[in-house]
Fold this sequence. Notes:
The structure holds two protein chains of two kinds.
Chain A: H1 3-44, E1 46-47, E2 57-58, H2 62-68, H3 71-104, H4 109-121, H5 124-134, H6 140-149, H7 162-190, H8 194-202, H9 207-218, H10 220-235, H11 239-246, H12 257-267, H13 271-300
Chain B: H1 2-46, H2 51-54, H3 69-76, H4 83-115, H5 121-131, H6 136-149, H7 156-160, H8 167-178, H9 182-190, H10 195-206, H11 208-223, H12 227-232, H13 241-250, H14 256-276, H15 278-290
Helix pairs in contact in B: 3-14, 4-8, 4-11, 5-8, 11-15, 13-14, 14-15
Amino acid sequence: xxxxxxxxxxxxxxxRWGWVFVSPGVLFFSVFSLYPILYAIWTSFHNKKLLSLxxxxxxxxxxxxxxxxxxxxxxxxxxxxxxxxxxxxxxFIASLLLGVLIASQKKGRRIFQMxxxxxxVLSSVVxxxxxxxxxxxxxxxxxxxxxxxxxxxxxxxxxADATMVQISTMLVYIWKMVGYFCILFxxxxxxxxxxxxxxxxxxxxxxxxxxxxxxxxxxxxTMALVSVMIFTASLKTFSTQYLFTQRGAxxxxxxxxxxxxxxxxxxxxxxxxASVMSLLLFATLLLLSxxxxxxxxSGEDL
Amino acid sequence: xxxxxxxxxxxxxxxxxxxxxxxxxxxxxxAVSGVAIIPFLFMAGASLMPGSDVTSIPYRWIPxxxxxxxxxxxxxxxxxxxxxxxxxxxxxxxASTVAFSSVFxxxxxxxxxxxxxFKGRNVVFMGIMSTMMIPFEAVMIPxxxxxxxxxxxxxxxxLILPFLTSAFGVFLMRQYLLGFPDELLxxxxxxxxxxxRIFRSIIFTNARPAVATLAILAFRxxxxxxxxxxxxxxxxxxxxxxSYIVRxxxxxxxxxxxxxxxxxxxxxxxxxxxxxxxxxFLQGAGVYSGSKS
Lengths: 302, 293
């Protein structure tokens, strides 16, 4: 009888090792995640300047009021929303289509996956710098468009015109991300049980029927997941916009939220307002992450 | 038996339809892959041309003669002080340190969470998972202030410390280790293995796929990181590749050919990784959709 409690105490002593293994993580996340987010909330209620020696003063909701009434902030909301919506459909449709096509291949799956994924391997800054050269007035993009439209010598102002520069940033992003999301679809299709597909073939379903009646409905959780991920990822876009503006592109059309936060904090040195924008971005992403968890959760029911 | 007799004709028809559909599918895939690769061809070709050829009309894809000196000039930098070489070294230092530490810490935490029933385990797990929702962009400003307070600005420690590990890495390792049978742990204990040794042997022998996936994700994340080094470093000798490229590209008088050489040099290490370990790259991408299964 005394054997049981003894064994339990041995086990509970061993379980203390759990804390030993976990403690570096607890320390790390407290300092570099939890503390900064609390600090961000605190800063958003104070008038804190980057290099000022004056102690920050509590100013209530003034930062929030200022941000929410500033046209500059709403321009960034517009820029970010335009960007997200602009890249969403092209990325979603292309990656779904390519994912289905890759999954239908018996040979060469790996080669196609690697070819399509390679843009995602390239750093976003390298990507942006290569495309910046292609968007040069005398560059490849103009020559290509003029070749198609039969308008030799016209400059389409890829990096200079307010509308074109938005399209340019979207093109770069679409090129970079389609392969990545395509892999998610390939993985999702791979999880559909072979028996279901075999059964449908035996029942006489053709390829098209199989696609619309079997693959697509069973792929719904992956679609939901990918949709949310496209939104969360594209809301965080920064490198392309930053590099293009550094190379002389107009700021306003592509002044997405992350770029605005960076400029407000570092160039204008207004940390309170930068924090407010960070928190608003955080709230939006939190909402999207919640949707993502629900999407992933519904995948579990599959 | 039954199946064969009534399904054969249909099956054959379906297979035939499948074949022709397959051909079209392969054709589309080849075409799209070709489009995906065009910027790489441009980048590689242009890196061996004088700037005037990069923007010549019409553009000629193949350099008249390969101008290898572009690469030398790229490494030398516009001031001839080899600063790019230094920045490449910085990127290597930061990315490898982060890859190593993120694997080490994440697997330690993941192991603790997966294999010990200690008090407060759920609180720790939920706490770490909730930080996964905090995007870096939302905390970068307070993180910057914290780093400045700790005296970390313009130092390697400042570049590295905020990325020592990631909540996603913890999640990945925990999920992976949950599937590891407890019986093997107990067997090792009976043989007199200490807990740290059990951890070591599991991580380095049995968790290799998860470790490789995580290490690649972490390395690439830092190789690609622009925003944080932009905030935390001021001096050129501490910059990493991305901020160097931005500065170089921002200079409208810089030679376009050399600029592409700069880009190719930055791309080579990740592509070597990609070609030698593509399985883990694709796995890393699939982790999100596959994580629940």
